[in-house]
Amino acid sequence: MEITAVVTSDKIEKTYYDLYQIKLLNSKNFNLYIQISKNSGTLEYGDKIKVQGEYKKPAKQRNYGGYDDEQYLKTLKIIGRIQVKKVEILEKNQINPILQRAHQIRKMMIEKIEKNFDKENSAMIKGLLLGEIKDIQEDVKTNFQISNISHILTISGMHIAYLMMGMNLLLKKILGKRKTKIVTILSLIFYAFITGFSPSIVRAVLMGVIVLVGELIHRKSDIINSISISLFLTLMYNPFLIFNVGLQLSYLGTLGIVLLQSTISQILKKIRLEKIRNTIAISLSAQIAILPILLYHFNTFGIYFLITNLLVSFVIGPIIICSFASLFISFFSLPVKWGVAILNFISEFSQLPFSKIYVPTLSIFGIAFYFICVILMHQIYQIYHLDYLTTTQKRMRNLIALFRYQFFQKKKVYLVYLISFLIILGSLIWIPKDLKIHFVDVGQGDCTFIETPKNQTILIDGGGSLTEEFNVGKKTLLPYLLDRGYTRIDYIMISHADLDHIRTGF
Q: CA 170, CA 349: separation in Å to the nearest integer?
C-alpha cells in the first residue's frame, strides 16, 4: 500500500527496527504504526511523509487469557502496522500548531532533565513529571510494581493536585482568585497536551477543570458527577479505552477513595496522628477498590502496600515540586537526587519475603461478587454508625435485625444447612474431571500443559528463547498457568535439552 500521513510520535527504538505512530491525512479516526529499518534515517514529530510498504494486521491473543495486540492497539486508536519499504519526507511541521508547541516544550523539558541529572535519575524524573518511563530499567519498574508504588510513575490526580496547589500559591496574590483559576484551567489543559493524554491524566485534568469551572460560576461540584462526566467524555473519544488497565485503575482508585475513605478513617480513629490516619485511609480505600483489577491483570498481591504508600506519601510531594523547580533553578537538583534515592530504597521492599504472592486470575463473576461484598459491608457499617439514616438504610437495618432474630430462633437448623452445604462444596474437588491437554504457544519450541482427572498438573517442556531478550517463562507461560487457575505444578518433564524447550525462567 501507499499512503500519505503525518508522524505523531517520536522514534520508539526496537531491537531490529524503529517504530513511529502516524496519522492518515483527511482522517480523524485512523492511526498506524510504521516499522522502519534502522538504516533508513530518522523521522521527526510533525513530518508529512509518503510511505510505501506492507500492511500488517494486529495479532489476536495466541493463548487463553494472553496478550491481545489487536485490542491493545484499539485503545490507542491504531488499526495496524506498516512494514515500510520506502519512506519519503514531503514537508516539515505539518501538525496542529498547539500539538507541535506542546511537543517542543516536552522535548525541552526532557533535554533539561537529562542535562541536570545522570541517566538513572533522569529516567526516574521523566517518569515522575511526564509519565515517560521507557528509559527506566525493567528491574526498577518491577520493584515499583511489586511494592505497590508504580502509580507515582503515572501522571495522575496526585500530580494535578500539586500543580493546582503550586499555581494557586504563585499567582493568587498577583492575579487574584478568579484569574488564577482561569490560568490554572489553561495550564492543566496544556499539561495534558505535554504528557500525551494518557487515560489517567485525562481523568485527573477533566475532574480538576470541572471543579475549577464550578467555582468560577459559583456552583459546587459533585465528585461523583465529575467522575462520571470525565469517564463519559473519555469513552466518547475512544470507547475501547474501557479495556485500558490504567483507566480502570485510575477511576476505580478515585471512586474507592471518594466512597470509602471517610468510613475507613472513622474505623482508624484510634490513630491520633491525622496525617498518618488519612494516608492509611486513602491507601486502603484505593487498594480495596482496585484489588480485583490488579489480581485479574497482574495475578500478584503485595502485603507491604500500606508501609510503602505511607512512606511515599511523606516524600512524593516535595520530590514533584522540586523536580518542577529544577527545570528553572539548578539548585533544586540536589534534593531531587535525594528524593529519588529514597524512592528507590522504598521500592526495595519488593525484595522482602512474601512481597509478591501469586494468585490465580479472578473470573468476572469473582470480581462482581467481590464488589457486591464490599458494597454490602460498607452499607452495613454505615447503618450502625451514622447518626442520621435514610429511609432505605433504616429498612436495611430492620431487615438485618429480623434475619438475626430468625437465625437465633432456628440456629441449629441453619448450622446444619451451612455445614451440609460446605461438605457438598468440598466434596466436588474429589469428583474426577476430564483429562485436558493444552498446547501452549510459546513461539519457538514446544510446551504442553496437562490437567489430570485427579486435578494434578504436568508440564512437558516450557519453551524458551535462544536469546535473553524475551523471558518466555515470565511473559508467556506463567500468565497462562495463572489464567488457567493454577499456582503450582506437580510434575515437570523435558523431552530433550535444546534451549528452546527448557530455557524457561520464572
A: 37
